[in-house]
């Protein structure tokens, strides 16, 4: 047990040393398509987003795809609903198929729903503007993923996603220059509607490693790269997607104490996230499971402006499971998530 504690404390110290220099400054406003950053799934949210290693069900397709390799059943489905801030909601779903030694194949879908947004444009009237009706904004992302266990200790996973976002139509002006003669140019102005839509292919990659130490078999660590893509643009200015690199390690608390009871387990995980558009963040989460039926979860997100503590619970009966998560969101009060899963 002393060796296990030494290992854990060493990892915590290395984590602190890794993130400390990055807290001196914050990289802000350097990415678009931020809807890809919102967590989908109540189980992961209840654990504060600490899901790089412990995520070994279909929900892992929204985090580290390597975790999909550990699914034992033939099919796994998940349907998720998130009540986000500012009357925004997220609907997502994922499916995973176990093809045996070939690997695991999956697909997921995410679509945010935005409240009505009143559009206006400049006009030559007393108000200086005129209404143009509701702005039709929207976004979605569809992903295909694959995972496989290369050995009894090592897992790999990858995902290719198609992401699209529209900021609504707007009227724009185009000026055309015509050379009449050497001393006279003619300029024509035309107006057109632009749908302000952009789309791109996005890639995720992940790994999981189980060292299987003799006296600490539950210890594991993993890493993944999320939202790797080329730059995209709406009109003239190019921008990047919210690329992030995550490193996490996890273990069973009972294993750390010396013995895992037959009807209980308690997973604990620490993730370090290095995002493109912010300083490094830390997610800490835990999940207590009794008889593979009842789950209680909690977690905390460090170095966030608003997000912080979260709680959740789950209930599983035969092929069905239901999960709920509550997340504190500062002045915005709270975020609620509900997930329904089917496995067979």
Name of the top-level CATH class = Mainly Beta
Count every helix, treating DSSP H or I runs of 4 or more residues as helices.
Answer: 3
Low-confidence stretches: none
**How many β-strand stretches?**
20
* Assigned CATH architecture: Beta Barrel
Helix content bin = under 10%
Question: What's the CATH superfamily, by name?
Answer: Outer membrane protein transport protein (OMPP1/FadL/TodX)
Explain what you see.
By secondary structure, the chain is mainly beta. The chain has one domain (2-108, 141-162, 201-343): Outer membrane protein transport protein (OMPP1/FadL/TodX) (Porin). The chain is 8% helix and 54% strand. The protein has helices spanning 2-19, 42-46, 253-257; strands at 75-83, 89-98, 104-113, 118-122, 129-134, 138-149, 154-166, 170-181, 184-194, 197-209, 220-228, 232-233, 238-239, 244-252, 264-275, 281-290, 294-302, 307-317, 320-329, 334-343. Strands 1-2-3-6-7-10-11-14-15-16-17-18-19-20 form a 14-stranded antiparallel β-barrel. Strand 18 (307-317) and strand 19 (320-329) form a beta hairpin. The longest helix has 18 residues, at 2-19. It is elongated, with a radius of gyration of 24 Å. The mean pLDDT is 87.
Summarize the helices and strands and which ones pair or pack:
Layout lengths: L1 H18 L22 H5 L28 E9 L5 E10 L5 E10 L4 E5 L6 E6 L3 E12 L4 E13 L3 E12 L2 E11 L2 E13 L10 E9 L3 E2 L4 E2 L4 E9 H5 L6 E12 L5 E10 L3 E9 L4 E11 L2 E10 L4 E10 L1
Antiparallel strand pairs: 1-2, 1-20, 2-3, 3-6, 4-5, 6-7, 7-10, 8-9, 10-11, 11-14, 12-13, 14-15, 15-16, 16-17, 17-18, 18-19, 19-20
């Amino acid at each position: 047990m002393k060796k296990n504690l030494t290992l854990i404390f060493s990892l915590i110290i290395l984590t602190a040393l890794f993130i400390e220099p990055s807290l001196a400054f914050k990289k802000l406003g350097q990415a678009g398509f931020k809807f890809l950053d919102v967590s989908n799934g109540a189980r992961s949210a209840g654990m504060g987003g600490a899901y790089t290693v412990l995520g070994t069900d279909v929900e892992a397709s929204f985090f580290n795809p390597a975790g999909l390799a550990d699914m034992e059943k033939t099919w796994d489905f998940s349907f998720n609903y998130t009540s986000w801030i500012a009357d925004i909601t997220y609907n997502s779903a994922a499916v995973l198929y176990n093809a045996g030694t070939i690997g695991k194949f999956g697909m997921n879908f995410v679509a945010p729903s935005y409240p009505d947004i009143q559009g206006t444009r400049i006009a030559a009237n007393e108000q200086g503007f005129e209404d143009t009706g509701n702005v039709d904004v929207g976004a979605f992302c569809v992903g295909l993923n694959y995972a496989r266990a290369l050995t009894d200790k090592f897992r790999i996973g990858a995902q290719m996603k198609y992401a699209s976002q529209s900021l609504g139509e707007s009227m724009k002006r185009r000026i055309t220059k015509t050379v009449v003669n050497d001393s006279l140019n003619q300029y024509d102005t035309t107006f057109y509607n632009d749908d302000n839509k952009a789309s791109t292919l996005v890639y995720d990659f992940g790994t999981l490693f189980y060292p299987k130490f003799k006296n600490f078999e539950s210890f594991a660590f993993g890493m993944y790269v999320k939202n790797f893509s080329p730059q995209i643009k709406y009109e003239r200015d190019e921008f990047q997607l919210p690329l992030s690199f995550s490193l996490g390690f996890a273990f069973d608390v009972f294993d750390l104490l010396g013995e895992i009871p037959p009807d209980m387990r308690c997973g604990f995980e620490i993730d370090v996230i290095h995002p493109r558009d912010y300083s490094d963040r830390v997610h800490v989460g835990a999940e207590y499971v009794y008889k593979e039926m009842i789950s209680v979860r909690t977690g905390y997100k460090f170095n966030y402006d608003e997000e912080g503590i979260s709680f959740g619970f789950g209930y599983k009966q035969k092929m069905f499971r239901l999960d709920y998560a509550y997340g504190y969101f500062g002045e915005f009060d709270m975020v609620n998530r509900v997930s329904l899963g089917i496995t067979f």
